[in-house]
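Comment on both lines for my students:
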Amino acid sequence: MSTTKKIAGAALAAALGVTTLSACGDSDDKSAGTTDKTVTLVSHDSFNVTDTVLKEFEQQSGYTVKVLKSGDAGAALNQEILTKGSPRGDVFFGVDNTLLSRALDNGIFTPYEAKGLDAVKPEYVLDKEHRVTPIDSGDICVNYDKAYFADKKIAPPQTLDDLVKPEYKNLLVTENAATSSPGLGFLLASVGKYGEEGWKDYWSKLKANGVEVVDGWEQAYNERFSGSAGGKKAKGDRPLVVSYASSPPVEVLYGEPQPAEAPTGVATGTCFRQVEFAGLLKGAKNEAGGKALLDFLVSKKFQEDMPLQMFVNPVTKDAALPELFTKHGVVVEKPENVAPETIAKNREQWVKAWTSLVVK
C-alpha cells in the first residue's frame, strides 16, 4: 500500500512538463559512501530545496549534503526498517503522521532535540522524546472546478456532509485508499469526522451518490478532474477531486498564461492534515552532521524555501508564506486529525473494510 504523501505541486509540475530544482548532491547510487564532511539525507522522491539555500548551509556548516531519494515514503521507510542499525544515511526525511508509529515502534531513530525546535508550532510536535522533528504540513482536501459551479449556478461543496447531497451526485472522483496517499488521507478525514461508528455509513452514502474511485492522484487530478490543466486536456468531467490545499496556487504558478485567479478552489471542511517529520537515523555514520542537518531543516531559511519547492506549509511560527500561497491558497482552520497510534492500530483494517464497501 502506498501511503506516501504525494506532493501535488511536484506531480502537477511533472504533468505540465516543468522541471523542478533538485538538491545539489542528489544521487541514485545507493552504494556511495560517506565521509565525516558528507551528511546523507535519505528521503522520498519529492524532497526538493533551492540550490542556493542548500549551498549556504553547506558553506556555513562545512558539510556537503548528499540526498538519496528512495521512491515513495512507504518504500523508503521500509528500506530503513530493513537496514535498522546500519542505515544508508544519517537523516531520514518524509515519514508522516500516517506512518509515524510504525517508524517509532521499529526504533530506527536516535533522539535529538533540534536547535530551533522551540519555533515549531506545538501541535506538530507529536513525539515528546524528539526521535523525529516536524518539518512540514499539508492538507488533503476536496478541490473544485470554479467554472463548472459558476456555470451551473450551484454553490460548491464546503464540507464532508455536503458531498452526499443530491446536487453533487456523480461529481466527485477520489483515489483508492489502498494505493494512494491522498486516497488514504480522505478516508482518514471521514474517520476523524464521523468516528469508528460512522465512517462506513458515510462512505455508503458517498457511493450511492456516485463517487468515482481511481488508482492514484495522477489519474484523478490530471485526467478525471475538469478543473486542472491536465484534466482540461484530457476532457475530464468530474468537477470535484481529492487533492491538496496547495493545488490552486500550483495551478496559478504553472498556468500558461498565468491566470490572475486560481481556476480551482478548496472545500476547507473536507480536509485531513498530514505532517512530515525527519529524524537522526540510529547508527548514522555522521551523527554530528545529521544533527546539523536537522537544525537546518527547521531553520527559517529552509522553512521559507519549502512552499515553492515542495508545495507544503512550514511548521515554524516565524516562517512567512510566499505571496503565491497567501493570494491563491486557503487556510484550513480545522482539519480532521487522527492520532498516529490510532492510525497504526487500525489502518489495515480500515482500508480493508473501505475496499470491501466502496470498490468491490
The chain has 13 helices and eleven strands. The first strand starts at residue 26 and ends at 27. Residues 1-8, 13-34 have pLDDT under 50 and may be disordered. The two ends are 17 Å apart (CA to CA).
